[in-house]
Amino acid sequence: MINIDTKISKKLIIEAAWGILENDGLDSLSMRNIANELGIKAATLYWYFPNKLALMTALSDAVTATVISKFTYSNDWQIDLLNNGLTFSRELREKPYSADLIVSMPPNSEKYLMLMDRLLQIIDHLALSDLEKFYSISIFQDQILSFERDFLLQQNTVRSREHSISNIPDIPVLSRIFNQGLFRHFGQESMLAWNLKMIIAGIDQATKK
């Protein structure tokens, strides 16, 4: 627990919130639990954040801003989209449940819109309609967010799934895959990279129709 004499600030509150998310999960993120972690009364937090949504927005915005700051660009849109997509994923992985926070934000969240715009800029020169560009990047972002959200669930269920699969008849292909231990590739960056490459290949194909 942070010393009660420590001067409270937005930064300390956000750090305490990340600690709760990492150690106890999203369901444990509450103003009361954050206050307990800081050794203060819950009412004190409302001087800094008027409600839990404001705090969650600050957490989401912090991750999104970091992602944007780490984007890199070259002359190859496919490489840029893949690399920046993986950067997005890595930052989400660094902050447990950040994908859930981003998904829970209103669709007009400023930082999230900035992130989408940066990705749209990568494909803006392609021979696609604006609607097709929007669809493409929406699917791209959704894949990354879903992948990271699923990762937390998969960590706790891989072994039980492998055991249950071995007892199901008439699934020869899946049985072969599971017997090779390939189920443990869930959540690995190589798997996400493959998924993103498939989306990128689809975008490229659409430009040639």
From TrEMBL:
GO terms for molecular function: DNA-binding transcription factor activity; transcription cis-regulatory region binding. Residues 30-49 bind DNA. Keywords: DNA-binding, Repressor, Transcription, Transcription regulation. The lineage of its organism: Bacteria, Bacillati, Bacillota, Bacilli, Lactobacillales. Residues 7-67 form the HTH tetR-type domain. It comes from the Bacteria. This is HTH tetR-type domain-containing protein. It comes from Weissella oryzae (strain DSM 25784 / JCM 18191 / LMG 30913 / SG25). Pfam families: TetR_C_1 (PF02909), TetR_N (PF00440). GO terms for biological process: negative regulation of DNA-templated transcription; response to antibiotic. InterPro entries: Homeodomain-like_sf (IPR009057), HTH-type_TetR-like_transc_reg (IPR050109), HTH_TetR (IPR001647), Repressor_TetR_C (IPR004111), Tet_transcr_reg_TetR (IPR003012), Tet_transcr_reg_TetR-rel_C_sf (IPR036271).
